[in-house]
Structures are given as C-alpha cells and as structure tokens.
Amino acid sequence: MAVLDLKRKLAILSDAAKYDASCASSGSVKRTSVEGKGVGSTDQGMGICHAYAPDGRCISLLKILLTNFCIYDCAYCINRISSNTPRARFTVEEVVDLTLSFYKRNYIEGLFLSSGIIRSGDYTMEEMVRVAQSLRLEHHFQGYIHLKLIPEASPALVAEAGLYADRVSINIELPRDESLAKLAPQKDSGVIKKAMGGVRLSLEESREKSRKARPPKFAPAGQSTQLIVGADSASDGDILDRSASLYGSYGLTRVYYSAFSPIPEASSMLPPERPPLLREHRLYQADWLMRCYGFAREEIALDGDMLDLEIDPKLAAALNNRGAFPVDVNRAAREALLRVPGLGVRSVDTLIDVRRYKTLTLEDVKRTCRGIAKVKPFIVTADWQPGALTDRANLRGLLPKEPAPQQLSLF
After folding, report:
1. In this structure, are 230 and 328 located in the same domain?
2. 339 and 228 share a domain?
3. Does pTM surpass 0.85?
4. For the sheet containing 49-52, what is the strand order?
5. How high is the pLDDT of residue 267?
6. What is the number of structural domains in the chain?
7. What count of other Cβ atoms lies within 10 Å of the Cβ of residue 352?
8. Last residue of a domain, one of 235, 265, 287
9. Does residue 215 have a pLDDT over 90?
C-alpha cells in the first residue's frame, strides 16, 4: 500500500469529517496562555471549520478524523468498511503536531476529533485520548478540544476523555431505533444510550464536586449528539420527539441535525436524493424554541407530522394558537412575550428592561426587532391594538414572506 504524505492524509480525513455537524465550541470554560505557560486559547477569531458561539462569534476548529478506516458497515456512512473510498490514518503525533502548527499560524483555536472504529472501540478511544492528553499535558494546549466518544469504549476511557476535552459527543445518528438496527446492524441503540447516560452521570458528579473542592472538570461544555435527517422515513415529529427525549434523559447541550447526503454505491435501503436543506433549517428553529424559548414539544405545530417549510415554527405555533394572542408588551410575562413571532430573546429582555422606566409604544417594539409587520398582529402597546387582525382567517397570507433561500456564489 502506498505511503501517504501528511498533506494527502489531511485532505482525506478533513473531507471525511464534514458529515459530522456537532462541532460548535460554545459553552466551554475560558482558558488562556497569556499569563502563563502553554499554547492556545478558547477565545479567538475565525478559521477552518466554521462553528458559532451563542453571541455569533465564528469559531475556528481543525475538524478531522483520526482515521476513516472502519470495521462497521453502516449503510449511510461513506467510511463504512464496504465503501470504495480512499483511506488514511493519522498517528497520534501527527494530529498533535497539526493542531499546534495550525494554531500557531492563527488558522484555528481548537480541535474536533472523531474517528472510524479501528480494531475495537477501546483501541480507537485510547488513541483519541492520547491525542488530547498529549496536547493538554505535554504541550499545555489551552484551546478547545471536542472528542467524539465511542459508545462501546470502556467507562474508564470515557472518563479520561472527559478530563481533557471541553465537550464530548456520542452520535445516536437515526431518530428511530428500528432504523438504526436496519441501516447500522453493528450498532446497538441500547449501548449508545447507556454511554450517553454514563456521560450525564459524570457531568453531574463533576458539577457537584466543583462546588466544593473545584477538581478538574469533566467536559465543561457538556455533551451533544447528531441526528441524520432524511436517511429513513422518520417524520419531523419523530425527530423532535427523539430530541425532546434526549434533552430530558441525558441533559444534552445540543442536538445537531444533518441532512442526509447521498453517497457513492449507496444501499437501495437509502433514499436516492437528499431532503431539502430547508427541512434541516426548520428543525434547528424548532429545536431552538424548545431549548431557548421554553416551548414544550407539544407546542411545536406540525402539518401532517412535518414542519411547515413556508413559515418558521414559531409563527406556525402562533397561528395555530390564536387564543393566546394578542399579548400586552407592557404587562405580559417573559414566557408569553417569547412566543410572539418576530421577537427574539434579546428583544424580549430589552422590552422588559425598558418597560420598567416607560410605557412601551409600537415604535419602541420596532426598535428591538427586524420587522414590525410580523409582530403587530400578536401584540398590544400603548398606542396599538390589532383588533380583529389577530383572528383573520387570511392572516398568514398578509404577513411578510421569508426571502427564498439562495446558494451564495464564491465568485
């Protein structure tokens, strides 16, 4: 077999990592090497893999696989053992050197490391832990590290991974257990859930201890997972049900959604085309409502068990629950204001702060949101009453439409 140079390995293994969406670096602790020894920081600029923090900052991560060799044969995965794809494998030292070299050139601020399964789950997890351990202990790297955990790995290795990583994640992949059994027969949903439960216990134990003696924290940015959208027949309702269950059962920081992408020589069990990217976008919007706006899963309006692609889920929920509107912005509780289409968390918090000092008018609301036309049918201010507008049968058609999504050109 031909020996690959480092540049070729990087090309193969960074491309192979693009299918994993769960690589945001928000939620970690602040670290810096400015006043001490070490390399790196968790608070810097732009770079290779674009992930975003809650404040909108672009996070730069070196996003790679340790190897795209894999002993599993998951039908939806380009790196499955039966796939005719170019293969490569980094050594532990190569990943460490790449991370440090890219950081020193100001290309990245952290590392997202996943891998195909080599030999066994324990062997693979041990190699990934060695990377993180070397960066932290030998090179005093203070930047962000996200490790993809192997569900079959021993709890001891998972515990060690969490000591070096800012965030860990285990991909549950498919919304339905029966789909996982069919498309990835070597994976066991029970083993995956048990591993996620073990991570939650470690996180809770670490947080409890940190209130007392402040020992090294276990994965301070928490754990996340990914669901593939459109690889099976699961509806948006199925996907959101699974997400709500994952948040409640395992205390996840995030669930990421990745639209299925057709792969070469694909199994006949898979769809021939990818789902519309707008479907993935709507799922993220619905997920945001559950995580940040206090919506229960049952409040997310569905049309035939699918999210409406023409309007966002928050507007769909409001149109489906007219009796809760209009709300008085001068008196309504924060929870009620967060359900108004067109008002975001920052807008609501600003309005609540300002109304302590003055009576809010429509102009005040307009200053806090992107478009007042979407908001007006659902609110009351000192100088505005929507009257019968809220209950009009054709209200949906009267509201401004979202611009059609367009693929941006690079040239």
Report:
1. no
2. no
3. yes
4. 49-52, 58-65, 110-114, 144-148, 167-169, 223-229, 254-259
5. 85
6. 2
7. 15
8. 235
9. no
